[in-house]
Request: fold
Amino acid sequence: MNAPSPFRAALLDGVPHGFFGRGGGASTGVHAGLNVGLGSADDTATVLANRAAALAAVAPGACLLTPYQVHSATCITVDAPFAERPEADALVTDRPGLAIGVVTADCAPVLLADRDAGVVGAAHAGWKGALSGVTDAVVAAMVARGAQAGRIVAAVGPCIARASYEVDDAFRQRFDAADAANERFFVDARTGHHRFDLEGYVVHRLAAAGVTRVAALGLDTYADEDRFFSYRRATHRGEPGYGRQIAIIAPSG
Reply:
């Protein structure tokens, strides 16, 4: 297995973290590379080995915890390893020895940290979770553990970019109904369709929650096949499956 090399955000320097693509790993076929999706059709032992390799590149020796993601706004604060993954789309911890992560395949992974409080968070922000407030929930959970919103720094990792994300009128209307100002995250495409800026919307929601220092990595999972898995790309091609990438963060203490 080739060792995976994560993408990092300068805002999170000093905090163990990494956003991974498909580089490295031992999976083959449509899952080729560092597939970490426990829900994929890939070999489970291979997926677990890929997850272990990603963890070793970020927080060697830590225990990796990831939720069973359901496109919700649910955030859970964790103090110890869990035997069964809870249904949630964000995790928060301040416990040394734990690493938390989320998996994605076009949705936006968000990693957050308050260095002074020693609190970190990880959120899976697909359009449903982002619209319903998953970033608000993770910030609130971090504050409940002693963080201050104004001290939190965050990074939005590889996700589908606006140029690749075509949606229909019904999709846009959900965002317009929530806030008319959301129109700025859409540009017109063909008749009845638009292109949606998921990354920009997530950055906006973080800022609205008080997180003013946010790095957006600007990496398009759909367009960059060599580096990233993409659910939408696999669907458009009629492929039988797709891999998932992972984002991991751990307290620095």
User: Anything to note?
Assistant: The chain has a mean pLDDT of 97. The helical segments are 44-58, 127-132, 134-144, 169-178, 198-208, 231-237. The first strand starts at residue 17 and ends at 19.
